[in-house]
Structure formats: structure tokens, C-alpha cells
Amino acid sequence: MTKTRRIIHHACWFALLGPHIGGLVTLAKEMQSTTLTPGQFLLEILSILPIFIVLTWVIGGVPALLTGIAMACLPPRIYACVWQRVLICGAIGAAIASIVWLVFISAMDEAFIWMSVGPGLMAGMMMGWIVPSLPFRGETTQTYAVITQGPDR
């Protein structure tokens, strides 16, 4: 896969899935800190689920996109080693999420760690692990002619 194709592939997958992984981390933290029972909390989240999903994607889309681009530009030696790639993508995700949070929100309070760094770290690590194996990498193993005509006779 060429470098440009890898950048496009990773950026698209990160922007599509990354914010939702970060949203799950945010939900888990909020579930721990609320006084509601887990059932009540889930009912409350389900009542605002469409808005929550859209806001998660809008807020986390830019950091996820930038993290995907940064991951695609890793040196080949680091990119080839799964555990190094996962750790570095997590660190990049946390750093980019916190920088974007500070640029757009311009405030730092106690929720800062859970609203930017935690989701960015977890999403970066998860996506760094699964994105290289996701489809649409541009690697084809068979051509259309071989599939439709069968093997040579």
C-alpha cells in the first residue's frame, strides 16, 4: 500500500470509528460517577442516544482524523510492531485530543482528563490495533477476470 493510500485509509477509519470508541470511555466514566443505578443511567442515555452519537462524532472527529494521519506516517519499523504501534497511537491520540480540546474549548477543569485525554488514549490504542486489518486497503488478491472466467484451462 502506498503512503498516500495508507494515510487516506487510516484517516477515514479513524474518523469513522474513533470518536465512538472515545464516547464509550466517556459513558463508562459517567456511569461510575453518577448516583443513578446502571439501569436508570442506560435509560437516560437511550433517551438522548441520537444526539449523543452525533455530538460524539462532531467533537471527536477532528482529533480522530489527525490521529489516523499521524499513525499512517509512523516509521515502518514502529508501524510493523503491533504493541509499539498501539502504544504510540494511544499517546498520539491523547495528545491530539487534549490539544484540540484546549484550542476549541479553551478551558481546563477537572473533567478535562475524562473528556479529552481518556477517550483519545483509548480510541488511539484500539484503532491502532484494528485499523491495519480493516478492509479497503487497496490490496487485491484476485482480478475480476479470474473470478468470472475461472482458472485457465
Automatic annotation (TrEMBL):
This protein's major location comes to membrane
Signal peptide residue numbers? none
Q: Which cell locations does it reside in?
A: Cell inner membrane
Q: Does the keyword Transmembrane helix apply?
A: yes
One family name in Pfam for this protein = CBRB
Q: Where are the transmembrane segments?
A: 7-28, 48-74, 86-105, 111-131
Q: Which UniProt keywords apply?
A: Cell inner membrane, Cell membrane, Membrane, Transmembrane, Transmembrane helix
Determine if Membrane is one of this entry's keywords. Answer: yes
What membrane topology was assigned to this protein in its record? Answer: Multi-pass membrane protein
Highest rank taxon of the organism: Bacteria
Matching InterPro entries, A to Z? CbrB
Please report which protein family the annotation says this sequence is part of.
Belongs to the CbrB family.
Task: Report what the protein is called.
Answer: Inner membrane protein CbrB
Q: Which organism is it from?
A: Silvania hatchlandensis
Upper lineage is: Bacteria, Pseudomonadati, Pseudomonadota, Gammaproteobacteria, Enterobacterales
